[in-house]
Amino acid sequence: MNIMDKKILASIEIRQGDITQIEVDVIVNAANSSLLGGGGVDGAIHRAAGPELLTECRSIGGCHTGEARITRGYKLPARYVIHTVGPVYSGKPHDSQLLTRCYLNSLKLASDYNLASIAFPAISCGVYRYPINDACKIAIDTTCNFLKAGRSLKKVIFILFSSKNYKTYMDYLKSI
Ligand code: AR6
Predict the structure, then answer these.
(1) Are the beta carbons of 133 and 165 closer than 8 angstroms?
(2) How many angstroms separate the CA atoms of 2 and 53, rounded?
(3) How far apart are the first and last CA of the chain?
(4) What's the pLDDT tens digit per position in 17-55?
(5) What residues form DSSP beta bridges with 159?
(6) Could you tell me the distance, in angstroms and rounded to a whole number, from the CA of residue 35 to the centre of ligand 1?
(7) What pLDDT score was predicted for residue 7?
(8) Sign of CA pseudo-dihedral 93, 102, 151, 18
């Protein structure tokens, strides 16, 4: 591993916990294409942010799978929320392309807003049933490649709800 790769890995952090509690510039929401809320991490973010988040999301008018939109964070400790729509897992190659685009478009949007820190949940790994091992590689590989271009982001946190998913991310990060 060269010095540049080490620097990139040092800006990635894996944590176990609740994304609604985390103090970063922007947290990412695993939304659905309506952007009008739902269960899982989406429900938790809307509950913690308060009703103004839904009002702003309504004004956006939806988001296609793989794309991302940004709103304010309202009552959350995070200043902004990036809403991205992961694929419903089907087992087809297109799944990984769409999940890659979720991470890439979220990272690009954070950079466009000149943000320094971002936290991701395991997009698509709940209700949308994406296998955690495959999703974890996409999340970390896409992020490392993005950080190589060196824009505003200095810290990328992956925050996992379960200890099993936390271990999957830790094991993969250690292996690269
Ligand atoms: N903090 C961090 N991670 C969480 C939290 C939290 N507070 N809550 C859940 N997770 P899911 P998806 C984890 O189902 O698969 C919604 O209804 C959870 O354990 O939230 O992309 C949307 O509206 C799992 O590992 O998102 C969509 O309809 C991961 O977050 C649909 O679900 C993602 O699980 C999106 O499904």
Answers:
(1) no
(2) 42
(3) 9
(4) 999 999 999 999 999 999 999 999 999 999 999 999 999
(5) 15
(6) 14
(7) 86
(8) negative
Q: What is the dihedral of CA 162, 89, 136, 66, to 10 degrees?
A: -110
- State which ligand 1 atom lies nearest to the alpha carbon of 122: 29
Residue 13 backbone phi and psi in degrees, to 5: -130, 140
Residue 77 identity: P
Atom of ligand 1 nearest to the CA of 34: 23
Confidence of residue 113 (pLDDT cuts 50, 70, 90): very high
Phi, psi angle pair for 160, to nearest 5°: -110, 140
| Domain spanning 3-175: CATH 3.40.220.10 | yes
Spatial CB neighbours of 136, under 8 Å, sequence gap ≥ 6 = 122, 165, 168, 169, 172
Q: Is 76 in the pocket of ligand 1 (CB under 6 A)?
A: no
| Angstrom distance (rounded) from CA 28 to CA 142 | 15
The whole model's pTM is what?
A: 0.98
3-state secondary structure the chain: CCHHHHHHHHCEEEEECCHHHCCCCEEEEEECCCCCCCCHHHHHHHHHHCHHHHHHHHHHCCCCCCCEEEEECCCCCCCEEEEEECCCCCCCCHHHHHHHHHHHHHHHHHHHCCCCEEEECCCCCCCCCCCHHHHHHHHHHHHHHHHHCCCCCCEEEEEECCHHHHHHHHHHHHHC
